[in-house]
Design brief:
By secondary structure, this protein is of the alpha+beta class. It has one domain. It has three helices and four strands, in the order E-H-E-E-E-H-H. Strands 1, 2, 3 and 4 form a four-stranded mixed sheet that branches. The protein is globular and about 35 Å long. The N and C termini lie far apart (33 Å).
């Protein structure tokens, strides 16, 4: 499996919530999508995590972004840095936080 729980950090999320979430739903994980940066200064992999879904919150065409779901549920907070290039899904994640 491609998931390395000790190193994965969700792009745009202030906390590494992937481990707790994965304990519940790892069987639905579909793929990782990288943004402009694939890791941070601590060596953690930065990725959008996608899962297969049917009709759950945020499901679109059989896929949903785990990062978005964690932000929407208040488990993670959006973090962006002014000195870096804007994130691909920045607006989507910020909307989920409201």
């Amino acid at each position: 499996m491609w998931y390395t729980r000790s190193l994965l950090r969700l792009v745009g999320a202030a906390q590494s919530a992937a481990h707790g979430f994965c304990q519940l739903q790892c069987t639905n994980l579909s793929f990782l999508e990288y943004d402009y940066y694939q890791d941070d200064k601590f060596g953690r992999i930065l990725a959008y995590v996608w899962e297969n879904c049917t009709s759950q919150l945020g499901c679109n065409n059989g896929q949903r972004m785990v990062n978005w779901l964690l932000v929407k549920k208040g488990i993670a907070k959006v973090v962006t840095y002014q000195d870096r290039r804007s994130l691909k899904y920045k607006d989507l994640l910020l909307q989920a936080e409201q």
